[in-house]
Structure formats: C-alpha cells, structure tokens
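User: I've been trying to design a sequence by hand for this structure and keep getting stuck. Would you show me what you'd pick, starting by listing the structure so we're on the same page?

Assistant: Good idea, let's start from the same input. This is the structure you sent:
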C-alpha cells in the first residue's frame, strides 16, 4: 500500500507542475506526469544500486521527496497556482477507442519463464527485490554450513544451471565484482536492474502474479504519447487515428507488452523524446534531454544512438542560437557519460558484453579498460562544441542548408540505404530457399511487417519523390530519426532478424519512428484528395485483417511460459524461512531463486542420494527439509511424504508453426508437466530403484526399460540404512537357462564394504534374497557390491557382442519382523 501511495503522490505532484504549463489539456499533463515519474524512479533506482543501498520504498521515497522539493521551490516563484484544469476528452476520444479495442489483446500477460533468457531473468530479479534480496552482488551464505564436498557441489550447480546469473567463478576477473568477501558462486543478474526494480514495484502493489501489469501502463502511455505527437504536428485526426491504430495493434508491440522485456519502456522514452521535440514550446528541450538521459541510465543500447541525440541538440542550438538547447545538450552529454559509467558499476559483465557487440566493433580502439575514459573525454569535447552558443554565437546564415540541399541529403541517404539492403537481400537469398524467406530474415523486413506493412514503403517513397515535404524542424527530426534509428540500424548494426518475435523485439522501440515518418507524407496526401483517405483507410483495414489471426494467438496464448504464476506460488506455500529445500539440477533455473526469495528458506541442488542429503541438512537446519521434484527421479516412501502435487502447462513458441507470407507464429506449443513437493523424513532409504538417475552406481550399464545390466564382474551402488535385521532383495531378470545348465556353479555374491555377506544361485526366479544380520550393516553410507560371472549376450540376441551379468531393476532392504 505504501508503494502505491508513493506512486500516486509523485504523479500528482508532476501533474500539477505540467498542468500549469498546459491548463487547457489535463489529459496531456497526466500522461507526461506518469511517464516522468517512472523515468525518475528508473534513474533513482540505478543510482541506489550503484551505491548498493537499493530498496523499493527508498527509491520511490527519494523520487517523491525530490519532486516535493522541486514543486515547493517552483511554487515560490509563482504568485498563484492554477487548479482550473480542462480535460478535453473529445479530443482524445479516438485514441481512447483504439486503446479500448486493443486492451483485450495487450492486458493479459505471459507466465514465469525462469533463468535462461532476458525475460525470465528480469522476472527472477524482480522477485528477489520484492522480498528484500536487494544486494547488487548476490551470495549464498547458507552454503558455508555444508561440508566441503557438498558446498562445492552446490556452488557448481549455481554456476552451471543459472544462465543469466553472472558468477564470480566465471567473470570474477572483470572489474566490479567483489572477489574478496563473496564466494565463487556469488553473482550479478543479467541486465540493468532498474527495469527489474519497476517490475518489483508493480509486484509489491498488485502481487507477484501481476508484476508484469506495469507493461500495460507503459503501453497505454506510449500510445497516448504517440497520438499527442500527431497532435503536435497538426496532422488530420484521420492521419493520427490510422497511425495510432497501426502502432497499438502491432503484433510485436502486443507481444512485448505481454512479456517482461525492456523494449516497452524504451518505446515510451523514445516517444517522450519525440513528443518534446515536436512540442515547440519554451523549455521543451529540457524534457527531450530528460528522456535521453533516462534512456542512458536504462539500457546499454543507448550508446549506439548517442551520435544521433547529440547532433540533434548541437544543430538546433547552433541554428537557433539557443542557450536553452545548448544547456540541454550539455546535460545529455553528461548524462550519457554518467549513464554508461553507472551501468558498468551495477552490471559490469552485461554492460561490457553488450558494448562488445556494438561499440567495440564500430570503434575497435575502445575496450573495457578505456571505455569510461573515452566517454568522459567525448562528453568534454562535446560540451566545448556548445561553448560558442553560450558565448552568444551560432551558425552563420551562409552555412545554413537550403531546403533543396536538405532534400538531396534525405534522398541520397535513402538511396544508400536501399543499396545496402539490396546487397544484404542478395546475400541472404544465397543461403535461403526463397526471396520471401531472405526478406523476412532481414531486420528491414521485420520493420515492414510490424509497422503496418505499407508505412515504411510510404516513407521511403515520400523521401525519394518529395523530400521537401518535411518542412518543419519537427518533421526533419523525424526523418533524421528514421535514417539513423531505423535505416542505419537495420543496414549496418543489426542486419538480420531470424526469430519472430523474440529476436525482432529489438526494433519495437523504433516502430513509432517509422509510422511518424510515414505520417509526414500520409497527411499531405489525405489533405490533397478524398481518394487517398479511402486508400489509406482500406490499407489499414487490410493490415488489421492480415494480422488478426496472429493477434488472436497473442490474446489467448502463452509464450515463454514455463510455469504459471499461481503454481509457482503454490509450490512455495507452506515452506518457512527455517526450512531447507532440495531441487533437481534441471529445476534450478525455475525454482531456485523464487523459492529462496519467497520463503526465505535455504535452497540446495540435489547432487546425491536424497536420504543422505536430508540427514546432512538436518544437522544445519532447524526446520523441515523439502524436496521439489518433477517426478523424473522416484521418491521412496521411506524418503519423504508428498505434501503438494500439481500438473501445469508449459507453453512457448518453438518455431514449428511459422511460415507463409507473414512469418509469425500461428500457435504456441504447449505440453503438460507435473511438479511435486515432498517433506523429507530423513529416515533410512530402504529401496533403490535403477531408474533413479542420482544413484551412485558403478559397473552398471545404461537404463534399458526398468533394468540396468551389470557390465563388469563387480557392480556397486551406494546405500544407507540403519543397522538392523533385513532381507536383502535384488530384483532382476532371469539368467538364460542354457547358460545356467552349462555353468551349474553360477553364484552371485553380495558384499558390503568389500565384506562377503551372502550368495545366491540365480535361476528362473526374478528375486535374489539374502538375509542380513545387524552386525553386517555399518553406520552411515556403505557400498553394496554384486559379483557375478559374465555371460555372452549372444545367448539372447544373436550378434550382440556384449558380456553381461544380472539385469537389476531395484534393490530392497526389507525389515525382518
């Protein structure tokens, strides 16, 4: 509740500030206030992570305290605040209608994925933050209570099975890791953590199952910002409505909104930047700068767009002789350098890895050691470029480019892009089976599909035929954004896009740029003739019709869902902080971090016999021992009691239902799985089933059905039972009668710790039974060995050259009554 109060209080303060500038449009003020609050929270969060003092309430509180101080200072400069604010709902009726129709597609969210890819790591990190695991570098102090063998095994499991958790063991040589006081299994989550902080904030307000609902907030704000940009540009309502609908119903944007990925917030920031660039009001440059600075603290990809942002501020400040624009540009330069510096502190491996994918390839002289220095030097050099403006000088009139020169610049840039894409298309076609597949594999093709099919061709055609139609500064900024953020990006930075949706998500933040650039020419044509109105309306309806089946799949299907949120919470329900939990290695990525955070219990990977681990953990655990199982390894009655069992659905796009003219999934593949929770008893294990993959075996072959053949003259299994009077029963397949007849002395001998405890003559019976005395059972773990002569497998399968012993299915210690 306190988190919700902080959010609403902060947005209210910002609303009052924005409403003073635009009292005639309270809706616009509300949209900007909400977007600004989340942007501020993102920056405050990452700074707190850098200081390693982050908590959700502290970040929200500092954000609100800062806003309250700013509001108070601003109020003192004004004689009177105006609270007569108008809400022009009719003006936004079309946008609200589009959102209302789109909500059923965007509102539902995918389930929990777990570690292994970006979405799952953000979800997992957010769960940690929700439950107070706020350390930048996370460690597992509970492992220090284990003996050395078990500690090493658990740390190895963390290193091996938690993809997206960058551990000291793997990346400790990178600066930014604490290798002195932290264990080798300690690590840092993938990604810049302020996005996880926003998911966690949402989760604290509405519950863990609804943490991703904040994506819907970003979606709504993005659509409203986009519509407001079309209003800023003075376009016809039909133009704004068509473009807004194409963005709102873009399958990629819907998919991103239903997931837990950063691209939805990036889109909001890009559109906020373009909103202020097109507003043409005093001080708008500061809002544009704030959006860029937030972007620089939010995602490493902002580095790639640094030249674009800086040049925009530099050219406008020179052209207008504007100290305000120069100040904003200076702030952008400092913000970009500070942002990359902070990112290398909070998530060093992730940041350096992404810089290696982009910046280091473009400028090979930059590396991990000098990148921070280079950025700060570049910021200082950039600030010097703004110095003439601060001194009252600007761009001489003779250096101002004419509209004709600008027109040829746009035209030549697009021709160069088309040539580059043509080369990539020919190159792609050589390795694919068709021209269509080659086109779909290009990033440019993804832009076409997800921005409404006809809009990118319209923008390109408009620039080639009538580039001078981009008359205003705002429209020139839109074309510059199209050239750099879309065309340059698609032709030279990320050229291919082979998996729709997951790897095409990177273009989602820039879909609005394509649509706005197309809008420059669409609006002119709509004003020119009623036929164009009809043509664009028909094209839009056609696009919606083509995308409808894929939107339906998104509305009712679940992608990237390993387990639903309710089942995840049910698994953790009942486990207390003083308990311990054991997991199979292949369940680590899903349950390890959530169960540990939600319950506060110590979580370990099962690396050996369940009863052995239970006994050892009982020595260091005050509560119960639980075992979370997918039932691949059987749990005997003597080992544990099932306290929870449930079937759930795994659903994801496995790429099997793509194809055709539109390369989007026609369905998501689902399968049933089962999860069980056992309360371990810690009693002796009396049954050893060969199907248990975690049995400590030696001399046995692979599992064939329910049996394992003995492949050596002596085979062994590690056991642990309390000393007592038992009948040892070995369940096995019968030995071929022909071999027994030829070898009447074919005895099977059984040893415990190399001491003979009995022998039996196998025949057609499938159970060998030996009576064991209490003195023959040692304390603790022991080795049970089976010695038998080997016989040729050719007796039962002609041509089989193997030598075999018994085929054992299970071994039981049956207490003698």
């Amino acid at each position: 509740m306190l988190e919700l109060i902080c959010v609403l209080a902060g947005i209210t303060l910002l609303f009052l500030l924005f409403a003073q500038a635009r009292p005639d449009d309270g809706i616009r003020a509300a949209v900007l206030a909400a977007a600004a609050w989340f942007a501020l929270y993102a920056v405050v969060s990452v700074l707190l992570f850098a200081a390693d003092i982050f908590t959700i309430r502290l970040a929200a509180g500092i954000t609100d305290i800062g806003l309250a101080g700013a509001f108070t200072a601003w109020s003192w400069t004004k004689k009177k605040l105006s609270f007569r604010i108008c809400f022009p709902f009719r003006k936004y009726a079309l946008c609200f209608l589009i959102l209302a129709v789109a909500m059923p597609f965007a509102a539902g969210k995918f389930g929990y994925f777990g570690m292994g890819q970006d979405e799952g790591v953000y979800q997992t990190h957010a769960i940690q933050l929700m439950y107070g695991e706020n350390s930048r570098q996370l460690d597992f102090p509970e492992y220090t209570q284990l003996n050395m063998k078990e500690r090493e095994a658990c740390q190895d499991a963390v290193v091996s099975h938690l993809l997206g958790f960058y551990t000291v063991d793997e990346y400790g040589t990178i600066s930014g890791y604490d290798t002195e006081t932290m264990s080798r299994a300690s690590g840092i989550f993938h990604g810049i953590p302020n996005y996880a902080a926003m998911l966690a904030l949402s989760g604290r307000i509405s519950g863990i199952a609804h943490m991703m609902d904040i994506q819907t907030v970003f979606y709504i704000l993005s659509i409203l910002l986009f519509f407001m940009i079309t209003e800023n540009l003075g376009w016809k309502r039909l133009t704004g409505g068509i473009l807004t609908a194409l963005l709102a119903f873009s399958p990629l944007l819907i998919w991103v909104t239903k997931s837990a990925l950063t691209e939805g917030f990036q889109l909001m920031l890009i559109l906020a930047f373009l909103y202020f660039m097109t507003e043409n009001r005093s001080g708008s440059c500061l809002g544009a700068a704030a959006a860029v600075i937030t972007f620089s603290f939010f995602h490493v990809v902002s580095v790639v767009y640094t030249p674009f942002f800086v040049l925009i501020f530099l050219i406008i400040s020179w052209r207008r002789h504007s100290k305000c624009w120069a100040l904003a540009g200076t702030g952008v330069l400092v913000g970009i350098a500070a942002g990359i510096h902070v990112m290398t502190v909070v998530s060093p491996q992730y940041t350096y890895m992404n810089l290696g994918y982009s910046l280091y390839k473009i400028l090979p002289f930059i590396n991990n050691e000098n990148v921070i220095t280079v950025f700060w030097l570049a910021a200082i050099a950039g600030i010097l470029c703004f110095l003439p403006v601060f001194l009252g000088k600007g761009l001489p009139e003779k250096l101002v480019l004419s509209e004709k020169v600008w027109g040829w610049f746009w035209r030549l840039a697009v021709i160069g892009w088309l040539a580059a894409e043509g080369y990539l298309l020919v190159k792609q076609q050589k390795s694919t089976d068709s021209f269509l597949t080659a086109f779909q594999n290009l990033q440019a093709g993804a832009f076409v599909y997800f921005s409404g099919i006809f809009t990118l061709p319209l923008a390109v055609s408009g620039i080639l035929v009538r580039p001078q139609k981009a008359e205003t500064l705002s429209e020139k900024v839109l074309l510059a954004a199209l050239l750099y953020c879309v065309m340059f990006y698609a032709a030279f930075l990320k050229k291919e896009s082979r998996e729709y949706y997951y790897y095409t998500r990177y273009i989602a933040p820039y879909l609005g740029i394509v649509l706005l650039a197309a809008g420059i020419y669409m609006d002119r044509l709509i004003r020119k003739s009623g036929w164009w109105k009809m043509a664009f309306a028909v094209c839009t309806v056609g696009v919606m019709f083509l995308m409808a089946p894929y939107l339906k799949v998104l509305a009712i299907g679940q992608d990237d869902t390993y387990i639903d949120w309710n089942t995840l919470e049910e698994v953790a329900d009942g486990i207390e902080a003083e308990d311990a939990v054991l997991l199979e290695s292949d369940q680590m990525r899903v349950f390890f971090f959530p169960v540990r955070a939600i319950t506060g219990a110590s979580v370990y990977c099962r690396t050996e016999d369940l009863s052995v681990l239970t006994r050892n953990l009982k020595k260091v655990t005050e509560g119960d021992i639980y075992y979370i199982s997918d039932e691949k390894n059987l749990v005997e009655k003597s080992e544990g009691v099932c306290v929870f069992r449930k079937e759930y659905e795994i659903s994801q796009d496995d790429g099997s239902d793509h194809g055709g003219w539109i390369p989007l999934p026609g369905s998501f593949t689902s399968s049933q799985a089962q999860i069980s929770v056992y309360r371990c008893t810690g009693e002796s294990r009396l049954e050893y089933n060969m199907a248990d993959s975690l049995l400590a075996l030696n001399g046995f072959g692979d599992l064939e059905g329910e049996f394992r053949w003995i492949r050596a003259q002596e085979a062994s299994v590690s056991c642990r039972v309390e000393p007592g009077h038992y009948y040892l029963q070995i369940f096995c397949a019968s030995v071929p009668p022909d071999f027994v007849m030829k070898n009447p002395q074919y005895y099977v001998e059984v040893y415990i710790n190399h001491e003979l405890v009995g022998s039996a003559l196998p025949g057609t019976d499938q159970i060998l039974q030996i009576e064991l005395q209490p003195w023959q059972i040692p304390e603790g773990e022991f080795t049970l060995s089976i010695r038998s002569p080997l016989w040729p497998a050719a007796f039962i399968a002609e041509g089989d050259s193997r030598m075999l012993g018994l085929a054992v299915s299970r071994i039981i210690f049956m207490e003698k009554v």
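That's my pick for every position. To get oriented when you compare it with your attempt: The chain has a mean pLDDT of 88. The longest strand covers residues 640-652.
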